[in-house]
């Protein structure tokens, strides 16, 4: 291998790539600009949807209200809900969003309460997954619970007892996890997923252009006639593909980080309180006292762990594209591989998938699992070394295969 020749080939390919606006726009410019729009757009839509659900006075119907006139009167006089007659097809009405929730009161509820009989549960029907229906059910449940507590208080007062007699102490949950641990658990499955996708998509466009694209343009033969060893040519092209992979990942991740920093105050702050309230408990400022964050050192570790994976992707993309006879054929080969590289990230997000000695040897799955640990502030050095070493071996094997394929005339000049 001649490093000077590799550098010359790399510079030549890089100069040609920078002139190709199509590749630059599709692999770097569009994802970089699209990510802030997606983040801000989704955040805004979520805020608006939650705010609309909270501002709406839900339409609620009561089944069997004659058995609990006091509860019915309380619901009728509460401005948080709007009582409507029960339609015959009330289940379909909930599904059609004409009705937000239906409260079913057991027969003779108040009579049973007075006689001390065991009463069946009061049921609230709603449409799970529909934001306004869930909000209507939540408001209805709150009113029913308030009524129940009032009944208990009145009964205790009639016997000369304090309400604290049935509630001698409070139970509170306190979060001891630092913000970076919460942030790592929250974003740990998402960040590696995006990084893997960006690394691969950033590699396939330049790989297709400098192999299958050159075959179509007829420039591959000219390059092979130059007094440069085949290994120097393939390494120069490989470093160009690796540059595209890392550049795509870096620019888009930087765009995501900037969008998150700029939009964090909007999304979690006072103007985004509604959206924050819709997040899982402990992920918003109101739930844990501070916003979830990502450990910067952990993020740097993630980038270090991605390097051998980027080498692997670049070598695979170069090999597959080299085998193709045309740019379109290379697209048909590499397109389905995008789904393949995303599957390990999906598996890593499944409950029960943990980092073990076995999973540490599975490509991409090991990266997803260890990145989640590092973003959470945990550094399992044994697994980190095993994963980095195994990923480097896979990358070296893929690169050796690319060099071997480049030395085969039947591959270079397939027709």
Estimate the strand proportion. under 5%
Low-confidence stretches: 265-289
How would you spell out the order of helices and strands? HHEHEHEHEHHHHHHHHHHHHH
Taken from the alpha-carbon principal axes, the silhouette is elongated
Could you give the distance between the termini? 30 Å
Q: In the residues, how many domains can be counted?
A: 2
**Whole-angstrom Rg:** 30 Å
Largest sheet: 4 strands, mixed
* Strand-pairing-aware structural class: mainly alpha
Discrete helix count: 18
Mean pLDDT: 81
Number of strands: 4
**What is the share of helical residues?**
55-70%
Strand order within the widest beta sheet = 2-1-3-4
Observed structural traits:
mainly alpha; 2 domains; 4-stranded mixed beta sheet; 18 helices
Task: Reconstruct the topology from this structure.
Elements: H1 3-19, H2 21-55, E1 59-63, H3 69-76, E2 82-83, H4 90-95, E3 101-104, H5 109-115, E4 123-125, H6 131-158, H7 179-187, H8 190-210, H9 212-217, H10 220-224, H11 230-268, H12 273-277, H13 285-288, H14 296-323, H15 327-348, H16 365-375, H17 381-406, H18 409-412
Parallel strand pairs: 1-2, 1-3
Antiparallel strand pairs: 3-4
